[in-house]
Amino acid sequence: NILKLDHIISMNYHSVMAKVSVIIPVYNLEKYLAQCLDSVLAQTLEEIEILCINDGSTDSSPALLANYAKFDSRIKIINQQNRGLSAARNAGIEASTTDYLIFVDGDDKVAPVLVEDLYRSAILNNSDVVYANSLWFRPDRNRYFNVDRGIPPHVELNFVNNPFNELTSDADLYFKLPVFAWNKIYKKSFLTYNNIYFPEGMIFEDIVFFTRTYLKADRISFVNKFLYFYRLNRENSINSTGGRDFWDIFKILKMSKDLFVTQGLWPKYRDRFLLFEMRTIIDKLQKVRPELKEPFCTEIKRVYSGMSLSDYDLKFLETAPEFGQFVRILKGAEAMTGGTV
Predict the structure, then answer these.
(1) What is the pLDDT of residues 5-29, one digit of tens each?
(2) Where are the alpha helices (DSSP H) in the chain?
(3) Beta-carbon contacts of residue 236 (< 8 Å; ≥ 6 apart)
């Protein structure tokens, strides 16, 4: 990174008013962080502040951050005890001094025009949230994949340059959009006015954050470009461990469901949300460690044993293979140890 840093040191950012905050949570990312920072420092919109939240890292990440901060005044380091991804992102929201903010995970990378393109769309459309397309990438294979991380083609056709909100969209749209926090720009005043933060102490927190922003936003728009690159197969990633943290999905889905209920929107989303629940839970069941599959199924039965399907459109639900798997688990007829349910 010597050439990169030599270029940065010659640039004076002290007198530039930042327009966008880029929030980067950092926890033991020494293998990946330089690539992430280089991609953020290369943004075509230079008027940014880069908030690096060191969440109690025990590797060389803090030293790497300090080295980068010496050469670019836009980098601000916030150190905190390890409290998790949600707490780090929330700290970034609170520390932000700009009107707009973007989340970038410290093991990912972004296109040079990410900030500029999302910011321009937000300003031109007066949007509370702007989505971009994203790709998976595998450095070991030097390959990029478009695997359910992007905006579906029909959505691109209908909504690019045509802002919308919950009131102007049908129930299907919510379930076809990328829920991840990191491929979007947010108006900070929108988040703080509506008290929208990440639930702390849990994983899969993006689902709740996405639901809150989707239901509250007056205007959402899209940028039809692949601007964010999500790293696949990072070792020690929380979502790849398949541990007891996966039980958080039941709380996260309940919190999301309650948002629809409290806003009087449950009848509109009821059937599709149950299908979304089933698909999400079956997906997590397939990813938990083998020795945890049986207790995970037991938790499914505990949480949903009192559920009545009479209020739902069974003809709609029965078209999904996950529906049959889910019902068999509830009835106790599914083999719960080993294999895929």
Answers:
(1) 444 444 555 446 899 999 999 999 9
(2) 2-9, 33-41, 61-71, 85-95, 114-125, 153-159, 171-174, 188-193, 206-216, 238-241, 248-262, 266-287, 293-304, 314-317, 321-331
(3) 28
Query: Which token pair is 269?
Result: 């989303």
CB 47 within 8 A of CB 19: yes
Please state the pTM of the whole predicted model: 0.89
Cβ(244)–Cβ(292) under 8 Å?
A: yes
Within 8 A by CB and 6+ apart from 143, the residues are 137
Q: What is the token pair recorded at 229?
A: 């690159």
What distance in Å separates the CA atoms of residue 101 and residue 189, rounded to the nearest whole number? 10
Cα separation, 312 vs 227, in Å, equals 38
Whole-angstrom distance, CA of residue 288 vs CA of residue 307: 24
Q: Per-residue pLDDT tens for 134-192? A: 888 777 666 665 655 455 554 555 666 678 889 988 898 899 888 999 999 999 999 99
Q: How far is Cα 209 from Cα 196, in angstroms, rounded to an integer?
A: 7
Residue with tokens 């947010």: 186
Given a contact cutoff of 8 angstroms between Cβ atoms, the answer to whether 38 and 4 are in contact is yes
d(CA 180, CA 71): 31
Phi and psi (nearest 5°) for 49? -110, 140
As a whole number of angstroms, the distance between CA 300 and CA 244 comes to 14
